[in-house]
Amino acid sequence: MPSAPHAEKHFLGSETVRDVVIGMADGLTVPFALAAGLSAAVSSTQVIVTAGLAEIAAGAIAMGLGGYLAARTDQEHYASEQRREAWEVDNMRAAEIAEVRDIFAGYGLAGASLDAVVTALASDKKRWVDFMMRFELGLEEPDPKRAPISAATIAVSYLVGGLIPLLPYMLAGNLRSALLYSVIFTGIALAAFGAVKGRLTGINPFKSAFQTLLVGGLAAGAAFYLAHLFS
Amino acid sequence: MPSAPHAEKHFLGSETVRDVVIGMADGLTVPFALAAGLSAAVSSTQVIVTAGLAEIAAGAIAMGLGGYLAARTDQEHYASEQRREAWEVDNMRAAEIAEVRDIFAGYGLAGASLDAVVTALASDKKRWVDFMMRFELGLEEPDPKRAPISAATIAVSYLVGGLIPLLPYMLAGNLRSALLYSVIFTGIALAAFGAVKGRLTGINPFKSAFQTLLVGGLAAGAAFYLAHLFS
Hints:
Strand content of chain A: under 5%
Oligomer: homodimer
Number of strands of chain A: 0
Shape of chain A: elongated
Radius of gyration of chain A: 25 Å
């Protein structure tokens, strides 16, 4: 049974945690799978390191800028929906009032209390638009400072995640031991990442660790098999 | 000025469109950047094709399963918050009633009309919990069938996006022309993808096409530079 119900909510939805999870989930998985896959096809650790670094650079930039553009799109989407609702409140007043009535009628209000709510809400245009944004469209106003922070968080998380599987290929003397250490270190990192992610999102940490390991393993297995086929 | 305001809303938020965008944005960018980057470091198209296919397999699986787990997490998060709200409505009735009062007081309701709304909402437990889920927490009930569809949509979009930059390396006679055709075809695909994405999300299609091209170009440029450094 929940004891301190509201305390954790904000953290669960923290956008920074979400950005770290987005970047690190792919950062730990894809460069690891690529390097493991290439080890089935090429004999030089230098080619694997080169491909891995190129992938990390490409992935960090693509995901970071993708996050930046997504945050900007959210802002623009919110602003355009807000203009649209404001326009509707001004120009289609009867239809908007009917929408508010429908929403509250759906929650069981009727008669004088329904009239009172609708009249109170419709008496202040700003509040009315806010209500429609949040309730009809389910949109919350995005923080305008999010976009660059989100981009940097995702990119750095991808970079950090991607360097873990790649370091053994940079340091180990031969391909076989590089692959072995990469599998071990990345396995530990994936399980730890999954457990922490599970704890933050309210899922059983063991289950989450197992899922994260499974995704990494399947991705690396598929990459290995495909690279082996084409080598 | 908007003429048919509500018709487009649903499509804008379509989860399938979002999944295609998630998969294809990275699928067009990362394998393209990896292949272009490797062309600065290795002389064999076969190594590039092998690395590219391994990356596409790893990326499609990692992003697809990542989308699957994210959809499952959303479902579990919704269910656990719903249990929590139901528990609160049963066991912390006074506090929950105060929360409802605060919400509507914030929209300008007072006195008898505020009492009427609160009483009506609190008279039906299911409706009350639904209201708190949607309004206090901003959560909508996820479709339980989403997770596998989301996974497949993201994975296939990544695969389709990733094969466009890679096909020239499979078909062209030499590395130089493969790189050239890959840049041309992927540039066209990125611009078209950006324009369609812009149209669907309500952003200027030219601006969106330019942004998508820029992300692909920066990722490929960084991968090329890094691979060149390490070759």
